[in-house]
Structures are given as structure tokens and as C-alpha cells.
Design goal:
Elements lengths: L6 E6 L3 E2 L11 H14 L5 E6 L2 E6 L1 H10 L3 E6 L4 H13 L6 H15 L3 H8 L3 H10 L4 H8 L5 H7 L5 H14 L3 H21 L17 E3 L6 E3 L10 H14 L1
Parallel strand pairs: 2-4, 3-5
Antiparallel strand pairs: 1-5, 3-4, 6-7
Length: 264
Amino acid sequence: MDEKIPQIEAIRLGDIFEPESPLRGIIDMETIRELAESIREKGLLQPILVRPRAEKFEIVFGHRRYLAHKLLGADMIMAEVRDIPDEECLLLRAIENLQREDLSPMEEANVYGMLRNKLNYTVEDIARKMGKNRITIRKYLRLLDLPENFQKYVDSRVLAISVATVLAEIDDEVLRNYYLLSAAENGCSLKTAELWVSDYQATKAARYYQVGMGVDGPEVHLPPKPIFHACEQCLQPVELNQLKHLIVCPVCWKEIQRRRLDAA
């Protein structure tokens, strides 16, 4: 059976709606300017895709090319016109966004979140439609549930999603933010994050029983349990109250100070 030939025509920019809920975050105008210069020199290599809407047209994908044309002061743009249902429209936008080289972690997470929330897709549905592993989909969906300051560090690629997800398990906001800042400033592996959370949970449990809240009958008093962290220089354990700002042991701290004096 013959396939329907795409309908491509020149459409006035004023007759085109931008996407109601674009999946990308802040659009980099420098990138749009570079695209505009490319279009000025070489022309539009691929028409945008639009669908009829309220006697005008809505962009399905090609938003950046549309913005580049506006920047150039163009009146018209070449577009393929297709009557596309809502579900397919969202899927096409999702696929286009996932193909971008500059896609940030939060933008990718928002793509999967949109498919889950607007189309009621399960993790398995999203993985199948987007050609992704289910573990990857779950990882990015968990990112949407993290506090905003965690999301910012992940989106700027200061922290890995796995590290941020583990640190978010700390339910004391002050301590959680302390560990988050330490991880962001000094770097943090998944193993270190898991160690921090394990130490926090163990200390929390010890305090819980120490005040007689965790058992029936007489109060149980346990001796205070020291909290240890690994020194980032020599990897030896050191008590929390002896740590310096860089999370190093006293021996390594003196060595760092000595090196600084030698370099001065």
C-alpha cells in the first residue's frame, strides 16, 4: 500500500502556536543564535512538524528551528503538516528531546515524568516506547521526587543521581543539607554516600533506644556511639568531631597545610 506523501508547505510564523508545555528547560539563546546563522547561510535543512489546531498550527517538534526563524525576522517557515493525535504528539516531542546532545538530567527526568503523568504510562511502557532500560527510567523518575536543592546539583552535574538519591534518605533536614553541601564541594562517590547514610541511621537508632523510646519496659541506656568517616586523603577512619572541612584526618590535614607552606 502506498504511503501518504507528507504535506510540506510554507506557513506564516504568526499562524503557528509554540508547544503548550515544552519539555526542555531554559532555552539557550546562544544555541538559537548559532542555529539562526546556520539557517541564514545554508537554509532550513529539515522542515518543522506541525499539526492543525484552532484554524492555525501547533508545533509538534522543531521548536528551536521556529525560534531561530523568529530571531532572523522571517515571515514564513517550511513545515510538514500532519493531523497527529495528542498521545502521538507527546511521544514525538519526548523522542525529539531525548535525542538532544545538550539534554540535562532534569530535562530527561521531566520527559519521563510527562509520559507517566499525562499518558499514565508505567515504567515498562516508558522503557518500551523510548527504547530505554527500566532501571534508567526508575532512576530518573526518582530524581523528580528529590528536594529542589538536590535537583539543582544533579542538573549541573555536580552530583550523580545515585549519590543524590542515597543522601536524600537522611530525614534530618539540617544534616541532610550538611552532607549535600559537603558532597557538592568535595565530591562524593556512591560508596561514600552509602557510608554516610549508614552511619546516620545507626546513630539515629542508638539515640532512639537511649532515651527509652524504642523498647517496652525500663529505659535502655546505651553508650554513645562515635561516628566515623573515611579521610579523603588516606582513607583511614576518623571520628566526626575531629574532621576538618575537607573531610580529612588530622594527619592528612597537617600534611596538606605543610604542602601549602612549601608551595608558598
